[in-house]
Amino acid sequence: METIFDGMNFLFQVHARMAWLLIVSSVIVLWVASLFKIIHGSYSLPKGTFFNNLKNGGSVNKRNVLFVVAHPDDESMFFTPTINYLTLRGHNVHILCLSIGDADGKGITRKEELYQASAILKVICNVVVEAFILARYNVVPHQQVSVLDHPNLQDGFGKVWNDSILANIIEEEITRNNIDSIITFDNYGVSGHCNHRDVHYGVRKLLQASSQRKIEAWELVSTNIFRKYSGPVDIWLSSLNPMQSSHEVVHCLLNEQPRKSFLAMAQHSSQWVWFRKLFVAFSSYTYVNTLKKM
Ligand SMILES: [Zn+2]
Predict the structure, then answer these.
(1) What phi-psi label fits residue 179: left (phi over 0), alpha (psi between -120 and 50 degrees) or beta?
(2) What is the CA radius of gyration of the chain?
(3) Domain ranges for the chain
(4) Could you give the CA distance from residue 281 to residue 32 in angstroms, rounded to a whole number?
(5) Coil, helix or strand for 254?
(6) What is the CA(16)–ligand 1 centre distance, in A?
(7) Do the bridges between strand 181-185 and strand 216-220 make them parallel or antiparallel, or are there none, so unpaired?
């Protein structure tokens, strides 16, 4: 009797191990297949319909696109798929970062790190020249990247950012750089950080103002925690989004150069600690962005 019981126990353990092996190998196959799809896509550079309106002559209408973010590193950690998509197609990309990210007293360093990341993301051209101007003259080196250090817009949980102040600042930036499109956080702000969410409400406030009705604005759709940490696998679920949304305009953009997310994020040396390295590897925002029209 004991021998039969031992035998059944052994069989159960073998089955359990095989089930685990099957699950782990399926996850690995899915990761590899998803990465392959992303990298294969980058070779063929699919045309995409997002910001692909043609002018009368048949060439693509180049946009002046402003990314409105809360902290230095938001652009690299969350928006790289969209930034790559736009720069590879020759659109002019601008970044407005509404704080220097001084919650830990590293704001001055983080501001310079944003310029370096912007050079990797091809938002600005020559980081050596830009850094020289910044160090020598202490002025914003390039109009395509603006970083604010406003007394009422300081980095941190529990710091409420007024939407009217935000709307005025964004409006000034739009006028200064002849911006026609905005990309920003949605009302959850990927991580739920209050500064990200306030930025969204600032853009909303601006859109409600009659003078800015002609501005086209898009929000980065926040996903649930399982999709957020599913890495490249999320591309399959994200690509279903535009098909499901009949009443909303939604675009799913794959990161044609996922390596750039790592390279750009690595420029933020003061933030490049082990858990953020893991985040960038496992975050779906490294591989895909879903944008919804606001
Ligand atoms: Zn942030």
Answers:
(1) beta
(2) 22
(3) 45-293
(4) 13
(5) strand
(6) 42
(7) parallel
pLDDT at res. 96: 94
User: Ligand 1 centroid to 38 CA: how many Å?
Assistant: 26
Report CA(117)–ligand 1 centroid distance (Å). Answer: 15
Helices then strands, each counted (H, E), the chain: 12, 7
Cα separation, 67 vs 215, whole angstroms: 13
- The Å distance, Cα 17 to ligand 1 centre, comes to 41
Residues of the chain with pLDDT under 70: 1-2, 41-48, 54-60, 125-142, 210-213, 242-246
Between the CA of 75 and the centroid of ligand 1 the distance, in Å, is 9
pLDDT tens string 74-96: 999 999 999 999 998 889 999 99
Please provide residue 97's backbone torsions phi and psi, each rounded to the nearest 5 degrees.
Answer: -105, 120
- From ligand 1's centre to the CA of 74, what distance in Å? 5
Query: What integer pLDDT is reported at residue 133 of this predicted model?
Result: 53
Per-residue b/e over 214-237, b at no fewer than 16 CB within 10 Å?
ebbbbbbbbbeeebbbbbbbbbeb
Distance 155 CA to ligand 1 centre (A): 9
Which residue from 144, 139, 112 is spatially nearest to 128, judged by alpha carbons?
112
pLDDT at 188 (0 to 100): 95
Distance (Å, rounded) from C-alpha 25 to C-alpha 282? 17
Q: Give yes or no for a contact between 250 and 292, defined as CB atoms under 8 angstroms apart.
A: yes
Q: Report CA-CA distances (Å) from 77 to 35, 71, 206, 210, 289.
A: 18, 11, 25, 33, 11
The superfamily (CATH) of domain 45-293 is LmbE-like (3.40.50.10320)
Q: Which residues surround ligand 1, an ion (CB under 5 A)?
A: 70-71, 74
CB 89 within 8 A of CB 60: yes
Model pLDDT, residue 4 = 72
At 181 the pLDDT is 93
Quote the ligand 1 centre to 100 CA distance (angstroms): 10
